[in-house]
Amino acid sequence: MTGRETSTDRILDDTMANPSPAKSLGDPGITPLSPTHIQQNDSDQVSTGSSFVVVVAIDFGTTSSGYAYAFTKEPECIHTMRRWEGGDPGVSNQKTPTTILLTPDRKFHSFGYAARDFYHDLDPSESKQWLYLEKFKMKLHTTANLSIDTDLQAANGKRVKALDIFAYALAFFKEQALKELSDQTGGEFDNNDVRWVITVPAIWKMPAKQFMREAAYKSGLVSRDNPEQLIIALEPEAASIYCRKLRLHQMVDLTQSTQNGLSPTENVGSGMTQAKEHVRRNRQSRTFLVENVVGELWSELEEGDRYVVVDCGGGTVDLTVHQIRLPEGHLKELYKASGAVCSLPLSCSATVLTVPSAPSGGPYGSLGIDYEFEKLLCKIFGQDFIDQFKVKRPAAWVDLMIAFESRKRAAAPDRTNPLNINLPFSFIDYYKKFRGHSVEHALRKSNVDFVKWSSQGMLRMSPDAMNSLFKPTIDHIIQHLNELFDKPEVSQIKFLFLVGGFAESPLLQQAVQNMLQGRSRIIIPHDVGLTILKGAVLFGLDPSIIKVRRSPLTYGVGVLNRFVEGKHPPAKLLVKDGTRWCTDVFDTFIAADQSVALGELVKRSYTPAKPAQQVIVIHVYCSEKEAVSFISEPSVKKCGTLRLDVSGTESAAPRREIQTLMQFGDTEIRAMAVDVSTGRTVKASIDFLSH
């Protein structure tokens, strides 16, 4: 007998009258079985989705969102969503802004361009009553204690439950996609025939992933009775899956052009000009053909070759290293996903490789440029005015940021002519009322030489001024890449795939080129903003394509072990019925940075403390440290609850054994359980949102 017990707050509860330590200490007990890892056969792994008629992927982005789909009988044809109504001059609208509008009585009104345009047209006095939210996705990552009750702040300052907002958004995409599928097939399309895929950043922790799943349940996208209908996809993994299908005419190879005699600046410009022309020619077609072969680029990769996917989005920059496994070309995550995150308006934090969530004060995704622009406005017009303007004229603030968005996309290393940014009339008017003098006067007095006032009512920024807004964000990304490439286990990277909306920036492309100095080939897919979306569809068609992942955290439970003199600290000694136990021992399920194969299971057995017990509740702990001894260590925190519903499985056996299998190799942690004596399935769930 190994003598292991789950540690709980009620470890000496008087109601536990059974004298056996294996049953009496704490609510549940871990029976004397050795910790086991089980490697499943390929046939036992995740369903490939063949039971579904279509796979629909939703890319729920920080700044923009969209969906794409493929019928399982035509997996080589990926269809992107219908062209969105609305849009901005000079900005591609292959996706729609992640903006949502609620009526004054908090009912869903519209999403995307429709929400933004309607809000823009409201009378200022009326707009204060409506709830307009944008760029709200990162709240799921930046909230320390994310729960079902976490709220968001709308533009008018009112607060609304985050779960409602995410559920409204997913319900909108469900309605749009099913309507399009019904039009395609000529009849009402059944939601049960759809496998849904939702993309999330790789650096998101389990509570944020579970939150998205809860929002999907609330929206009616899928039901709790059929959780397999929804797959959570990691954004850089989705990009990686699509990149393996790339043909030479579907991408820009920045490095090859440089080797052909073009300077990095010329190369960036010419390469992306070709790509944009390709996109323009193909804009009318919403169907992308993905051939059932690996692309020419992929055929250059050999067993063990490594590549990096740098997913540059609005709020996050995710870095993931994959390794090729032949003969099938399956993917193995070589280094656990690292990344950085931006939280607006004026507070940012980052997780740098294996450094635990250390705030570093800088933005990382493309929202960081918006943050720098806001700081510049504060410097010119005053923080007090900008704060007041955002509250009093929220729709006009949205207009100003839209105007800036289209101009920031024109920033380039070789640009020589200034960029003009329209100031809304209400900005000019409200500033005069607020300060008593004009916007032009504020610019003259601000000592900001590189921003001038244009007589046409515009801010006139020099190219250097615009480029300086990019610098903090790009510097952090390059620092992040340098730290990654300095890791010995991440040496000899063959390709670097630059994906995500921010990857279109020539300034970022040039910075990555300068940093790598030819060490790796830099590949940018055409339609780079849709790379994740198309890859997510392919992932939904075959979720087993990623064979090995790295665990981001160490997970385990608290148990009792036999006390060993000299090994265990005296403070942990507990004597019960003459037996000496060591309390608070961390029983590791999976260690941080450990490779976990898809389908790999961790097995534990538990026994109810009382014969009539209906539910076993076990606290799950996690740590960013790889080696953990006790649940009381500073790095360890309670992060979840494993709940086993053993009602209805009662038996005459003197001791009931509930065998629990936990799966860590997927994008979500799953639990299954069975009553050993009766063979009946036990309802098992892991909750990460209550902690």
Describe this structure in words.
By secondary structure, the protein is of the alpha+beta class. It contains 18 helices and 36 strands. Strands 1, 2, 3, 27, 28, 29, 31, 32, 33, 34, 35 and 36 form a twelve-stranded antiparallel sheet that branches. Strands 15, 17, 18, 19, 20, 24, 25, 26 and 30 form a nine-stranded mixed sheet that branches. Strands 4, 5, 6, 7, 13, 14 and 16 form a seven-stranded mixed sheet that branches. A hairpin with a 5-residue loop joins strand 35 and strand 36. The longest helix has 24 residues, at 162-185. The radius of gyration is 27 Å and the shape is globular. The protein starts with a strand and ends with a strand. The model is unreliable at 1-35, 40-49, 258-265, 275-285 and 337-363 (pLDDT under 50).
- Sequence stretches where pLDDT stays below 50 over 5 or more residues: 1-35, 40-49, 258-265, 275-285, 337-363
Largest sheet report: 12 strands, antiparallel
Percent helix: 25-40%
Principal-axes shape call = globular
End-to-end distance = 33 Å
Approximately how much beta-strand content do the residues carry? 25-35%
* Nearest-integer average pLDDT: 78
The number of helical runs is 18
Coarse structural class: alpha+beta
Q: What value does the Rg take, in angstroms?
A: 27 Å
Main features:
disordered N terminus; nine-stranded mixed beta sheet; alpha+beta; 691 residues
List the helices and strands and how they pair.
Blueprint: E1 5-6, H1 21-24, E2 28-30, E3 36-38, E4 54-60, E5 64-71, E6 77-80, E7 96-97, E8 99-102, E9 108-111, H2 113-121, H3 124-127, E10 131-134, H4 139-142, E11 151-153, E12 159-161, H5 162-185, E13 194-200, H6 206-219, E14 230-234, H7 235-243, E15 251-253, H8 254-259, H9 264-282, E16 287-289, H10 296-299, E17 306-312, E18 316-325, E19 330-341, E20 349-351, H11 367-381, H12 383-392, H13 394-408, E21 419-422, H14 425-435, H15 439-445, E22 451-454, E23 458-461, H16 463-485, E24 493-499, H17 506-516, E25 521-525, H18 531-541, E26 546-550, E27 554-562, E28 573-576, E29 579-590, E30 595-597, E31 601-608, E32 615-623, E33 637-645, E34 658-663, E35 670-675, E36 681-687
Parallel strand pairs: 4-13, 13-14, 17-24, 19-26, 24-25
Antiparallel strand pairs: 1-27, 2-31, 3-31, 4-5, 5-6, 5-7, 6-16, 8-9, 8-10, 11-12, 15-25, 17-18, 18-19, 19-20, 21-23, 22-23, 26-30, 27-29, 27-32, 28-29, 31-34, 32-33, 33-36, 34-35, 35-36
